[in-house]
Design goal:
Number of strands: 12
Order of helices and strands: HEHEHHEEEHHHHHHEEHHEHEEEHHEH
Organism: Adineta steineri
Catalytic activity: RNA(n) + ATP = RNA(n)-3'-adenine ribonucleotide + diphosphate
Subcellular location: Nucleus
Strand content: 15-25%
Strand order of the largest sheet: 1-2-5-4-3
Shape: globular
Number of domains: 3
Radius of gyration: 24 Å
Main location: nucleus
Enzyme class: transferase
């Protein structure tokens, strides 16, 4: 199994980052702007240096107080600043013009996504995928007043960037942390416990957990030779500490955090305590110390705990003495099966998604995925159902059709006859149908079937 990214793959990503930064610099620079600055910053797996699918980047435009004369560009941005939506669109359109002008013959598809921050998603001919989050920070008097009321004396957080930088301070040895995180991510993805959109843990959550293990069980780097001499035996002990630590942690009652216990996290006046969001609480090491695991539900939390415990049981039941034993045990952990649906599940809600073009299809699936967590919350809170969410979209051979399954511990007849569940399901359907960019070719349907019928469907050839 290829766990680690090749040097060629990383260089391709680095090349895209540098070229994009250069083409944006043509428009956003000290000559064109006196009252704004811009930054182009990596975060996520690309910044950590591990094998991730995307190159995640933040384009940050920041308003500053300047004694210099306004440029024409400054004046335009100041006129637009009172309408954030219009300003965002203007900046995204400028970036789009630069991207198309500099990479016209290198792009397979380009897509703009409206989320908490605007996102530009690009797939290049060499299969490098880049996602650019556009963040604009203004000298907004209303924002300053709100921070004073809530006693927030904190710098504005740049999307994903501060989180990663604070995290890397805790890892002691970056190369060893990279290896551990890559290994754990591979395990989590393979057994179906990875992905915030499916209410499991995000890559950032797994990184926080790995950072804790490295900080607690590694010594500070004394020389490069200490990294080169890091053995399979030592790596095995690190992996074993990871699973033992988190299999024993009381996830239902306790909060996991990297910052000192003496530190009092920020609370917000008149708002629910941020610790109460999510069935697992893994606190980000960067202000305002949000719960990075806030998407988790009781159902997915229990599945993650079972995943930790399963590995511990495997290690305890295996005679591990020699280096070869330890190497084999590491392989066995990665060979564990994705237990979807597990033996407790009795029914499946299967989503059928399709569209005519790849660009539309990706946008359509992205929207539906963004609605899943709301549906999962309703299933637990309103219907009190335990569920198991699939952590991958099942793309069919036609490429523009996909299936996605959610398993439940009650049988299909009970699901179909439960009035509360019917209401929750219709609410989910209505949310899916509310997609503002939906075209007539974007199709969506679902079916409720038994586990046995679903398993029979999996045996049939994909159409």
């Amino acid at each position: 199994m290829n766990l680690y990214e090749s040097n060629e793959s990383y260089q391709r990503k680095q090349d895209k980052f540098e070229k994009l930064s250069s083409c944006f610099q043509q428009v956003f620079n000290k000559d064109t702007l006196h009252c704004f600055t811009h930054s182009f910053l990596p975060y996520g797996s690309f910044r950590i240096g591990i094998n991730g699918q995307d190159v995640d980047i933040v384009f940050l435009l920041n308003e500053i107080k300047s004694m210099n004369t306004e440029t024409t560009f400054d004046e335009t941005l100041h006129q637009l600043k009172h309408d954030s939506s219009t300003l965002n669109k203007h900046i995204v359109n400028l970036l789009e013009t630069q991207i198309n002008g500099n990479f016209k013959n290198e792009i397979i598809y380009y897509m703009k996504i409206e989320a908490l921050f605007p996102i530009i998603s690009i797939l290049f001919n060499d299969q490098t995928k880049v996602e650019i989050f556009v963040q604009i920070e203004l000298n907004n008097e209303q924002l300053i007043e709100r921070k004073v009321v809530n006693d927030l004396h904190l710098p504005e957080s740049i999307h994903g960037v501060h989180d990663i930088e604070r995290l890397l301070v805790r890892v002691r040895s970056l190369p060893i942390f990279q290896h551990l995180l890559t290994y754990i991510r591979t395990w989590a993805q393979h057994i179906g416990l990875y992905g915030q959109v499916y209410d499991y843990l995000s890559g950032y959550c797994w990184a926080i957990l790995c950072a804790h293990i490295c900080y607690k069980h590694l010594s500070p780097i004394k020389s490069l030779s200490s990294i080169e001499e890091f053995s399979i035996d030592e790596f095995f002990l690190l992996v074993k500490q990871f699973f033992t630590t988190f299999a024993q942690f009381n996830w239902s009652a306790d909060t996991f955090c990297l910052y000192p216990k003496s530190y009092k996290p920020v609370t917000y006046s008149g708002r629910p305590h941020i610790y109460q969001r999510g069935s697992m609480r893994i606190i980000s090491p960067s202000p305002p110390f949000n719960n990075a695991a806030r998407a988790t539900k009781k159902s997915t939390r229990n599945l993650i705990i079972q995943g930790f415990q399963h590995v511990v049981q495997l290690l305890n039941s295996t005679n591990i003495i020699t280096t070869e034993d330890k190497s084999n045990a590491l392989e066995q952990i990665l060979d564990l099966n994705n237990d979807f649906p597990n033996e407790k599940m009795k029914s499946i809600v299967q989503l059928i998604i399709s569209s005519e073009t790849i660009n539309e299809f990706d946008s359509w699936i992205g929207w539906i995925k963004s609605r899943l967590s709301f549906f999962f919350s309703d299933c637990e809170e309103t219907c009190h159902y335990t569920f198991q969410s699939q952590n991958t979209i099942g793309y069919q051979s036609t490429k523009n059709k996909a299936l996605y399954a959610i398993a439940f511990q009650v049988d299909s007849t009970t699901l179909q006859q439960c009035r509360k569940f019917t209401v929750c399901l219709q609410k989910f359907i209505d949310q899916v149908n509310s997609f503002v960019n939906r075209t007539t070719s974007m199709k969506f349907s679902l079916e409720i079937i038994s586990i046995d019928d679903w398993k029979l469907e999996q045996i049939k050839p994909k159409l």
